[in-house]
Amino acid sequence: MIKDRRTIMTWPAMLTLLLFALFPLVIMFYTSFISDATGEFSMANYAKFFSNLTYIKVTGTSILISLCVTLVSLVIAYPLAYIMAKKLKGLKNIILVLVIIPFFTNQLVRVYSWLIFLQDGGILNRLFMTFGLAENGLGILYTKAAVIIGLTHAFFPYMVVTIFMALERLDDAMLEASRSLGASKTTTFMKVIFPLSMPGVISGVTIVFIPCLGSFVEPRILGGTGGLTIGNIIEDQFFEIYGWNFGAAIAFLLLAMVLICMGGLNSAGKRWQV
Amino acid sequence: MSNNNKTGVLGKILIILVLLYLYAPIFVLMLLSFNESRYNSLPFAFTLDWYRDLAEDRALMEAAKNSMVLALITGIICVILGTMFILGQRYLARRTEGIFNSIVMMPMSIPWLIMGLSSLLMIRQLGFEKNMIFVALGHIVISLPYSLLVLRARISSLDKSLEEMSASLGAGPLTTFRRITLPALAPAMIAGGFLSFMISFDNFPISYFLMPSGYSTLPIEIQLSIKFGFTPEINALSTVIIGFSLVVLAIVGLIMRSNIKSLVGGDN
């Protein structure tokens, strides 16, 4: 086969990505084996991570928070997407846009607005106190719950969109067929609608869970000490402690976690593909 | 059906609750930017003082300028790189296309924290100093996939044979590009450009790791003021940023019209 010269046009983008996205990751992998203290090539950084219970615990917290956010997002997003796709007519596009807009507002502004909103003496606090629901302040801010609220706010719109698109593609005739063959509403949902929407659910889960694992801004600002994540540990290595190579090792472990989750979800998605 | 009615009411309640969750904190923040109290306390008393402070804040204005310049550069370069890539990609062998594609889309699935710190490690390892060029490159790398999504949605509707016909009728490659390809791609180029502009303008993680000392962007300024004590000036700043984002998003939406979904559902 003759090589088409027009493919040269792909090179500038490829070169940029190779040099400034892929190559840095290779460097990160390499430096993760260099000890911060002695400068020698060893597994010391990884040993340090796995021998310290604090790091393991924080990793656990990260996974727990990400799972909670994913679950909460799914519980909100699925019914919402279902109603939008199957019950609403003209309104659905407007609501879709309204759901997407906050996703495009500045991350820092979004987190800051939750900081103001949740703080003791803030609006929500007053509202709860007026109705006698909270007496001594809400106490939500600076907990894991605040991090979950903030992260869900950031990522669940994505999930609404992926599930919505999967459900919208679903042929109504199929549902009628199921119904007319005697299946109840519940059976139709369990046997027809839900399995067919699985690809949307899985890409939604991917799109929420993975960025949560790597989040560090929301936990830092909303989480207090109990809500810190693996992202914060990495951040500290670079800005407080100056253990850059150790930071690189943790970052590589995080990356490995992300890739494994993505691989798993990907193959799960393939199984459900129609 | 009565049953349908019940789900209708529950559905409406759900929609209202979700919208409240999405918008309440942002609205409160915007409202407080017009409130006199320094400690965000009530009762509400209208003032524009915080906006005046904002306009007079040298550091913030400088940060705003940096954010703008970075976002503009990112937007323009992403459109150029993205358009070239998407045009050339059609002539790649199938397997190569797959590999190239997964490389350019990669930054979408890697946490930006990792993208930022790995670039920082590379800069140090190669013996460079932090500078604005590396910040811009970092922004370009993470924004490019998004502009590619928009461009790809459009190019699938552009028929390759149209360009070939134009060539066989004697038009040079430049004429074909100017008369056929460019007009077909223009809306996606503009939308993709604005989208990467927005991603750069809002980006915190990459700037956080790569910004040389003495420089900052708006997200960095907000982070600093959260860390070291904030005034309602930040409420005013946030309100301005939200307004600005809405305008840009509206422009993208108008250009893409029905294609807004393609901004999000890349692999669908």
Structural description of this entry:
The complex is a heterodimer of chains A (274) and B (268). Chain A is mainly alpha-helical and 274 residues long. Chain A has one domain: MetI-like fold (Orthogonal Bundle). Chain A is built from twelve helices and no strands. Chain A has helices at residues 11-31, 44-51, 53-87, 91-100, 107-118, 123-130, 144-169, 172-180, 185-213, 217-222, 230-239, 244-272. The two termini of chain A are 34 Å apart. The mean pLDDT of chain A is 89. Chain B is an all-alpha fold and 268 residues long. Chain B has one domain (51-263): MetI-like (MetI-like fold), CATH 1.10.3720. Chain B is built from eleven helices and no strands. Chain B has helices spanning 2-32, 49-56, 58-89, 94-105, 112-125, 132-155, 160-168, 173-202, 205-210, 218-227, 233-256. In chain B, helix 3 crosses helix 6 and helix 8 runs antiparallel to helix 11. The longest helix of chain B has 32 residues, at 58-89. The model of chain B is unreliable at 264-268 (pLDDT under 50). At the A-B interface, helix 1, helix 3, helix 4, helix 5 and helix 7 of A face helix 1, helix 3, helix 4, helix 5 and helix 6 of B.
Name a few traits of the molecule.
heterodimer, A: 274 residues, mainly alpha, MetI-like fold, 12 helices, 74% helix, globular, B: 268 residues, 11 helices, 75% helix, 0% strand
Task: List strands and helices in order, with pairings.
The complex is a heterodimer of chains A (274) and B (268).
Chain A: H1 11-31, H2 44-51, H3 53-87, H4 91-100, H5 107-118, H6 123-130, H7 144-169, H8 172-180, H9 185-213, H10 217-222, H11 230-239, H12 244-272
Helix pairs in contact in A: 2-12, 3-7, 3-9, 7-9, 8-9, 9-12, 11-12
Chain B: H1 2-32, H2 49-56, H3 58-89, H4 94-105, H5 112-125, H6 132-155, H7 160-168, H8 173-202, H9 205-210, H10 218-227, H11 233-256
Helix pairs in contact in B: 2-11, 3-6, 3-8, 6-8, 7-8, 8-11
